[in-house]
């Protein structure tokens, strides 16, 4: 899979919520974001 780096700006509280959830699941922040975006994409079909 080809990957491209991108930057997003998040409100601090949202970033902290995502990080806590990623920690709870034993995932990285990046992995959590990828999961969320993949699920969003799948639900849009």
Radius of gyration: 12 Å
Indicate the structural class.
mainly alpha
Order of SSEs:
HH
Tally the beta strands.
Answer: 0
Taking pLDDT < 50 over at least 5 consecutive residues as the criterion, the unreliable ranges are none
Q: Helical stretch count?
A: 2
The biggest beta sheet, please? none
Count of domain modules = 1
**Ends: how far apart?**
21 Å
Mean of pLDDT? 95
Categorize the overall geometry.
Answer: globular
Helix content: 55-70%
Strand content: under 5%
Question: What is the topological layout?
Answer:
Layout (H helix, E strand, L loop, with lengths): L11 H14 L3 H15 L2
Helix pairs in contact: 1-2
Structure explained in plain terms:
The protein is globular, with a radius of gyration of 12 Å. The chain has 2 helices and no strands. It has one domain (12-43). The protein has 45 residues and is mainly alpha-helical. α1 packs across α2 (29-43). It has helices at 12-25, 29-43.
């Amino acid at each position: 899979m080809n990957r491209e780096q991108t930057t997003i700006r998040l409100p601090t509280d949202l970033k902290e919520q995502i990080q806590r959830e990623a920690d709870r699941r034993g995932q990285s922040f990046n992995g959590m974001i990828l999961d969320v975006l993949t699920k969003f994409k799948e639900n849009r079909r």
